[in-house]
Amino acid sequence: MLLPFAKEDFRRTSVEPRGARWLAHFDRIVSDVAVDLVEGDRPVQETAEAFNEHNLAMLDDAGALVEGTDERVWVVAIRPTPDPGAPTVTDNLVLRAEERGHFVLDLAPIHDQVSAFIVMPYGVKKDVRTGKKVDCDPAFHRVYRPLLEDADISWNRADLETDSGIIHSGMIAALANSDLALVDLTATNFNVAYELGVRHIFADRATVLINPHVEGHARSAPPFDINMIRIHSFTRGQAVSDTQAEEAIRALRPVIERVTSELEVDSPAHSWFDLAALTRPYSQLSQVAAALTVENGARDRISVAIKSSDAVAMKAAAEWVASATEVHEGLRRSLRIELAIGLHAEGAYEDARALLELTQPTPDDPLHRIWLQESVMVYRRLGEDAQDPETRQELWRTARTYLEDAEKAGYADSETYGSWGGLIKRELEKQLDSGDPAVAVSLFREMAEKYRAGFESDPSYYTGVNLLMALRLGGRERDDSFREEFNEVLTVSRFLNRLAIADGPTDYWALATRAELTLHECLEGGTPVDEVAEQYAEAARHGNADQVRSTKYQLGFLARYGDPEDVIERLRAVIEQAR
Predict the structure, then answer these.
(1) 400-426 pLDDT, tens per residue?
(2) Which CB contacts under 8 angstroms, 24+ apart, belong to 271-275?
(3) 8 A C-beta contact, residue 154 and residue 220
(4) N or C end of the chain: smaller count of CB under 10 Å?
(5) Burial class (CB in 10 A: 0-12, 13-18, 19+), 386
């Protein structure tokens, strides 16, 4: 985070006049340990001329930060429609950024409510056309969402709901009545095909089809049924780089502007049949139960609060959920869990805990699993932030209790055991300086037990590499039993990791895990780590700042628990140089 001058001065001159909500957001961001804060040393002069000079200085600093990397400078401006006769400091920042060729996202704080529905697969899906897997989410986060928000369009995406209770009716309503539908054809997904068909029946226009080309995958045509319709494309990797996102948004901007302002029919159904009598927005049948309308309205209200990324708005929504007499208890539980997940994402862990404690579903409730897993993560985060050791241990004991409940309930999968191993790792970190070494050995052995359970129930290279770490650092005797387990886990993890890299040659986590697998093998065998260094360097070239920070943190953890410091420092330096 770049500031032109000292944080407190910037807070007073540029944030405080905007009101309490801006202050709350600013304070939360600058206090986040994951945020790198860069404070300028320029004098504070509260004049338009001085602030315009600060704009140039910040752009200079931003350019210096990305120089020599694959990152780009993006300027996000929140401003009303500019008045040429009375330009503001923000208008000046946008002008200077565009003069330098920087990418600008221009968001209006208040705008007409043009609506869009995003139709796309989510998570990692296998593309039946290429036989390879692709992570669909980066296109949403780095292209579609900023594209629509830059166009001042309100968006929705059905899979952001917590459970499937009434998604179907809400999805159909959104497909029918949204001003725009943006359809991603990645992976030739069945759900996407169904939703596209519904959209074409109900809407005569403003349906944009996008078929991204994924680097490393063979180019393939869309399904023949829609091949006669105009389809747009952009190039992306398994992750979406700054440059790829920028190029995609620039290419799609005029498309969105055109389809939302013109009356061109793009639906085959409306081109072939006389459906002019069907006009939007469509109303529900009078026979539809009033309760369904209430549920849809309640979910829409909570969705707006969550998408605001504003903890204050989410807490206000939680108060409404508590007092709304028209909301039945099953829906109330679902909405509270959604809000708890949103608050967790914004770092409001205590507020998330309060909602989860009000919500506990019974074991036969479909929400029980997600409630347990979310509760574990919230109590873990609260423990990490706790300054008092006794409070920290109490919070982590609660997280452990929930993990035990998950295991008893039959949720014995890699996610549950991965969370368990991660919790034990945090306990190890907190007791390192003051704890008895015997406690550390005990925790490593317990960590190995949990990662082993996850690896055996649902093998993945993630649980595999963590199991190897726990085996190596747990103080076990290097006997035949140890060597047999170590080599077996290493072999299976390497195989799974190789498949992942074949599916995504630029997947950062797959590449970084390959390097860590090789590191464990070299350190255990006493062999040089030159190949490890090369693999970490390759991974670093495909990682963002947060991913690389996480990898360097993991290496630091290994050094703190006995791995050679000179080896670890060399690898951390290689990662930094490769970026």
Answers:
(1) 999 999 888 888 777 788 888 888 888
(2) 275/204
(3) no
(4) N
(5) middle
